Amino acid sequence: QPDWAATDPEMNAFIDDLMGQMTLQEKIGQLTLLTSDWESTGPTMRDTYQADIRAGRVGSIFNAYTADYTRQLQELAVEGTRLKIPLLFGYDVIHGHRTIFPISLGEAASWDMDAIERSARVSAAEASSEGIHWTFSPMVDIARDARWGRISEGAGEDVYLGSQVARARVRGYQGDDLGAVDTVLATAKHFAAYGAAQAGRDYHTVDISERTLRDVYLPPFKAAVDEGVATFMTSFNEYNGVPASGSRYLLTDVLRDQWGFDGFVVTDYTSINEMIPHGYSRDLQQAGEQALNAGVDMDMQGAVFMEHLKQSIDAGTASQADIDQAVRRILEMKYRLGLFEDPYRYSDNARQDATLYKPEFLEAARDVARKSMVLLKNEGNTLPLVAGAKNIALIGPLADSKADMIGSWAAAGDRQTRPVTILEGMRQRAGEGTRINYVKGASYEFASSGSTDGFAEAVAAAEQADVVVAVMGEKWDMTGEAASRTALDLPGNQQALLERLVATGKPVVLVVLSGRPNSIGWADDNVEAILHAWYPGTMGGHAVADVLFGDYNPSGKLPVTFPLTVGQEPLHYDMKNTGRPYSADNPQQKYLSRYLNTPNDPLYRFGYGLSYTNFSYSPVTLSNPTLSANGSLTASATITNTGDRAGAEVVQMYVRDLVGSVTRPVQELKGFEKVILQPGESRTVSFRIEPKDLAFTRADMSHGWEPGEFNLWIAPSSGLEASAPVTFNLTE
Amino acid sequence: QPDWAATDPEMNAFIDDLMGQMTLQEKIGQLTLLTSDWESTGPTMRDTYQADIRAGRVGSIFNAYTADYTRQLQELAVEGTRLKIPLLFGYDVIHGHRTIFPISLGEAASWDMDAIERSARVSAAEASSEGIHWTFSPMVDIARDARWGRISEGAGEDVYLGSQVARARVRGYQGDDLGAVDTVLATAKHFAAYGAAQAGRDYHTVDISERTLRDVYLPPFKAAVDEGVATFMTSFNEYNGVPASGSRYLLTDVLRDQWGFDGFVVTDYTSINEMIPHGYSRDLQQAGEQALNAGVDMDMQGAVFMEHLKQSIDAGTASQADIDQAVRRILEMKYRLGLFEDPYRYSDNARQDATLYKPEFLEAARDVARKSMVLLKNEGNTLPLVAGAKNIALIGPLADSKADMIGSWAAAGDRQTRPVTILEGMRQRAGEGTRINYVKGASYEFASSGSTDGFAEAVAAAEQADVVVAVMGEKWDMTGEAASRTALDLPGNQQALLERLVATGKPVVLVVLSGRPNSIGWADDNVEAILHAWYPGTMGGHAVADVLFGDYNPSGKLPVTFPLTVGQEPLHYDMKNTGRPYSADNPQQKYLSRYLNTPNDPLYRFGYGLSYTNFSYSPVTLSNPTLSANGSLTASATITNTGDRAGAEVVQMYVRDLVGSVTRPVQELKGFEKVILQPGESRTVSFRIEPKDLAFTRADMSHGWEPGEFNLWIAPSSGLEASAPVTFNLTE
């Protein structure tokens, strides 16, 4: 139980008293969340929300911020309603509020939980200073399909890394005290299995086994509960034939009964209404009943509870007790935020002015951005750019685009003026003696495919340069919600231009800005260096310059597998071995699990990333070859910086359970540590393993471990060949 | 219960007596199936099988045929062993034995159950005349991913069509009497869900819900049981974490306890052994125990039972009763085949000579082949080729390739001399007055990509022609087992040549030979006509000529969805609606389930196919707007041939259950009828619907229907826009 869930007799008495005064309609109002008219992300928009506030028909508002505006709306609730219940203000603060950090997937690539927590903490400080109490973040959906646009918004494909990132984000947003004015309520979303959409198409049908739900998709949600997350958001997809907002299995059996979650559950945008097109509800009234009965506490934007729940109570098809339970959960959160003490305590102009865009926040954004970048290739130490590179051709549609720097879901982030572009960052860093000749050269718009507009100028610039830096990738809104693709290539005519640039014979550095893994195999074969920079945020241009010029030695590792081609998707490192595994030992053998035309292997593995220095790994040593039921063991390896500059390395520990009552993945990440090593320095990194770390959903659907042999790797990336495993035995 | 499963006291007494004499090792021998040294499809090959036969260590042999050779091996068993138990001879007779019919997927495209049954009957006649008792066919795996190579070997993506085809094939192979010497035992394979391999990669992990298993993957197997199929084969994949050959849930709970299957279960090739790489078994002894305990009766080629089961009995980790049960099931089949009466009754040289390649069999193969072909495009009635087309350029690597005509898994089919190529078929049909100028022009080999070898000659031929017939597609072994692809385009340099041919301005007819849906959107946009001919078999060249020259009016309809691009896979028509369905009404709306760069719609829908004539559909009439629990209703539409030549139309009936306790597909095929109509002729086609036809796996996992509204279409293809639905109400 988190601190905030501790029994509070004073709170209970206050809420008992308040609920004793509430009419059914006022109660239903507390279950209703509506958007202000600032923004919308779905099909329904109610412009009568101000009247609804005054009438007590709405208890929470989203897409409203600034101290002034939230105060103004709060006045409508507190002064305009009978019971003066304050509003709760929610907002999509996803990777920064005003100061925008790298997209969530990029942050995960840092494998730096302190940095990720710091990012969330800064976001909370900024958002709360503008009157926001609650962010619809973190998204903790595991994503194993690069086609899915929202892969950009999570922490990638891995259960363990995803769970750690979920915890760091919840800690960052909520801090130690929900009532502190510089923290916000976090939301674990989207519950559940949203990332498993068929063919990577957003909102599409999910069909997975319960075992995979439990072992892959649920653990980051459970981690968020363990970290004390205050709220949950349902997902748009169905699970086992039932839309998540109508799933009593997910919202009650798992979330409440098995996990003991004490906060409240909000739907995603109009997802109760969407149970009709899903074919699960005859009409809105039934949809509302199904959602309430399943365990939904708050209806986001659908106005289904608002307009139909009273009829259901009158008809006896919904339970007053369920409504009371939901109202109580929501009022408890308002109480814990201190809103009944002072409804305006978050809406403070002076704090707002002192908080937004604080220099230390901008510096944090720059720091997280460079920590998020992943060096994918660096042939002949092309990077960092040497001092002799006095003439740099900077080419590509993403090299000088403010709008793109902050990616999608950038909340209240400024897309026009604040973001530092890569051109700006590089020019500032390079100084007077270096010429940076910028040519856009190509376009990422799909429609530009086939066009050679701008190529001539770009090629001319390249021909005159010492080195070409091509900044290519996807437009900011090609990932995120409702932004799925069936191809993973560089969109538009970028690939064609890249080929022309390579043809000049000049060294080419490719900087990729994107929210998903792209199939950049040609680039990997043909350019000298590749830096994946995600969408690096407000300070992104500086951060890219820090890395390109060597002021920061890149240390990011991929939180997702990069496929060779979209036809390999879904693709992830923690797959099963199958009965006929492909082996490099017999590449010509036909009857193996393989493709005719493409390797099984990805372009870049999960956990992969280079540095400007090199690290060597010693063999792994185990404290004991046997792990007993109540014991633990320690696995250690010594990592040495064998290069000539300091660098950080994400040391990763993987295990494989060789035989199980059900088949087990070929590797599972079970630990990691990011170490900073000076040139020549060695450090022994140790991981402690207990049997519970090796638990999974067994054949009988119980959760636990099984005795037997395990392989264990300590390695710089996933991959069975990344290093030799050691073996231990887990005994009863 | 099929006839053969009726109680037979005489048989029981015979087997009781025989089993009373058998040692444990002799019993285990009956559970063992080994290959002769003719062919192999997997990693293990035992060259000691003749010694094994003499020692009674093997009860069945596969990959052995001809009357002489099977007689010779049978003599080893009958004269060389103590108990003289005859061998059972199995073989992969998949789409013909000597006379090769179109690949199985192609046959399904005929939607002609009589034709499909006839194909299996011919196969049985030929195979049994060479001493074969048992075919490892039909494969009834639903396949919804065109990447998967074995999509070619089944009946496509649809549950209903797949079930009908499964029944037709079982009827065709087994006939009315297992003991008739011209029938063979059929095998329903691969049990189960083999087609759901992740990312379409053969043998890869399957992860689906139990609901999808039951509603999508199992029904064709249940249909095979209902038709009396004699044997089942396990699949290579896992289901719910357990390899199918170790799945007691599949092999006992479902197959025996729920379905009452009375035949025997054989594994796929070495699939018991493969439970070790799966990570399900520690060693072969455990694997054997797990397989036996799950419900496996016969071990194909793994020799696991042979080498380890006695130890398991000695150790008390396997049950003598399980072994006895399996032995009995196998001996029963040998008894029913009449082998105890006359072990050589199938090995009859005279019958063999009189049977193979009978003219009527070849004619049947030609007939099924033309019925299987699907006309995908025919702009301006480019087809049939008019008499005035005196100069035809016939181009492409598949236009004159005997080896490719018969596709993969062509059993004892001759790949060198017998197959009639398209060049041969067209030349013979066209006669003297027409010049058919054949140029290979391109290659389907992956390695030829980028090469323009042969293009010049092909383009020159095209320029001199009245019409170009390009025969392109995939090499015969690019589908089938272990033949998955990550791309669905025309392999090699065929697409590039096709573009050159189109650029000549001559009308281009594309004939596609392939075992999977290919992403031929460019062709659809740019050539005049497209005929999909699958791999049409021994008589394929004549059949293609029949269609191209208009001697046969094409009537096939696609049994699988053809995607626009591989990035849409898995793709099938019977998807769920989702909560945010894309609608053509609001193409610019963002927050819908769609891709940024590609439509959701496929290139060609399931059920689609053109004719040289046209058909119109009347609105649907219902006998009653309400269907009661014990009643039925009839849906009718009148189909009219509005063109000027006779043709056959596959009239399809789809339903949608609008609201369910779980979400339901947007359409489900529930009936079809192939009607032949003369020019101007009308026919009213009626479908009877009972509540049981509308059953599915409900929320509580029970199988049954639910009351409510249904949409119903009678239409020329799947697709919500193919025609307007009518609505009926199913009442309690």
What is the structure about, briefly put?
The structure is a homodimer of 732-residue chains. By secondary structure, chain A is α/β, with parallel strands linked by helices. A six-stranded mixed beta sheet of chain A has the order 11-16-15-14-12-13, with helices on both faces. A five-stranded parallel beta sheet of chain A has the order 4-3-2-1-10. A five-stranded mixed beta sheet of chain A has the order 19-27-26-21-22.
Structural class of the secondary elements of chain A? Answer: alpha/beta
The Rg value of chain A, from CA coordinates, equals 26 Å
Please tally the β strands of chain A and state the result: 27
> Total number of helical segments of chain A?
21
| Biggest sheet features of chain A | 6 strands, mixed
- Show unreliable segments of chain A: 40-45
Tell me, briefly, the overall form of chain A: globular
